[in-house]
Amino acid sequence: LHQGVDHPGIPVGTMGFDEVYVRVGDFGLYQKRVLLFLSLLCIPSGLYALFAVFGDTDPQSWTCNRSAGVAAQEVVSEEQKCELWKSGDCQPEYQAERNSTVTEWNLVCGDRWKKGLPVSALFVGVGVGSWASGLLSDRIGRRVVTLWSSLLGALAALSTALSWNLLSYTATRFIQGAVAAGVLPVPFVLMGELARPSARETCGNILQAMFAVGMVMLCCLALIIKNWRTLAIACSLPGLILTPILWRHIPESPRWLLVQGRIKECEVLLESIAKTNGRSVVNIQLDESKTTKHVDTNKQKKSEGVLDLFRNAVMKRRVVIMLFYWFVTSLVYYGLSMNASIGPNIYVSFFCASLVEFPSYFASVYLLRIQGRRKSTALFTAIGCVSLLICVLLSSGNLAGGSTQLSLSMLAKFGLGSTFANLYVYGGELTPTSVRNMTLGILSVGARAGGVVLPYVMMLVSLLATCCSCFCLHVCPSFHVGQSASDDTFPLVC
């Protein structure tokens, strides 16, 4: 049965959950179909996260349009234009290919810092939403949170197009981040609980790759749509269309039903899985004495608190280092993604940054299996560090053209994408099972903090210099944080 042979009419009888799940098919047609549906729901995550690249873009230049006095062409310096604009003697006139929030609300000169507010608000919302969606998915189910996150995220994306000023736009971006935060991580958990252990890495990387698919879609839409409001409406359409269509086709996690004590619903779902997978098993009855351990384990997990992570010196050291690692990786990853000025033009740069994500996910899976967590993560980090360092050195000496800088930055993006994929696996395995979900939640908050400060880091210093210094700093922890349980090194991890 485990090999997929159909044995008609085999009674399952009273068995434990894991035994039954192998018999009904732990990665058959049913699970692959759900993987496809969840992948479609995850695509908008890339559209939402990086909308600012095209929606909040700066104009190529601007002039000071005066009705009287000094002619506009005589005011050439940025300082002169800003002084006149501040005094009310000047109305900015933009030379821009795109209509953006910057040009619509005149976010120039002393107001330029306000451009980063919506991006920071988005990541603050994602931090809040990540915590809330994790809590809700444990209480009301993976399916409900996945579908409502997808639908509400699309509605929030649509609402951004109705913003009447910067404050309302910032508020809608926060709401969008909060309600759509579960679009990617909760399906990741749901698919992990539906698939057998050997297929979970592959399923997880496929779902993460949908973020890059969303990035490619965003680039294609932006190439056609030049108005930021129309672009926001277009970005909301995939979620608005797909979620109602797939609403009845996304199942609940059978393991979650089991842990909640909803045994009958779990048995009905298992029968549906068996039917779709071509397994003609009958009379599915879960042995409650064999499934009690799942419920007890869940209660034990809920009794653990945040302080349990810091009671042990080794555990405390790992969590602190990984927090820094997630913070810096997020900062530089989104910095490279949002700084599309590297290269010949914004569309080519962003498109290349999107495409390079795909090989990075596959490289992550491959090296995780043959090199382990610590070595592969350190290697990908070093690739990003060296690439950015060379890029900075060449550009400072005017030794590199746009294509060379683009190639080096894409190599760095490759290393970062792989590092990010590794960290989701690596971070969880460095702590005991009883606090693993909590650990990932804390680390995710660290990553969101990197996104919050990103707009202002980019304003204060050169992006490439920032990336390089951050990477050089966080290469060292990757060699000292320790290996995960999968590397058979730390007996404290269980």
Task: Describe the structure in your own words.
The structure is a single chain. The relative contact order is 0.13. This protein has helices at 17-24, 29-42, 44-49, 52-55, 78-87, 101-104, 117-139, 142-160, 166-179, 185-194, 197-224, 228-246, 254-259, 263-276, 288-303, 313-338, 346-355, 357-371, 373-396, 402-429, 436-460, 463-475, and strands spanning 10-15, 61-65, 91-95, 281-286. A two-stranded parallel ribbon has the order 1-4. The protein has a two-stranded antiparallel ribbon with strand order 2-3. Helix 8 packs antiparallel against helix 10 (185-194), helix 11 (197-224) runs antiparallel to helix 18 and helix 19 runs antiparallel to helix 22 (463-475). The protein is globular, with a radius of gyration of 25 Å. The model is unreliable at 1-8 and 485-494 (pLDDT under 50). The longest helix has 28 residues, at 197-224. The chain has 494 residues and is mainly α.
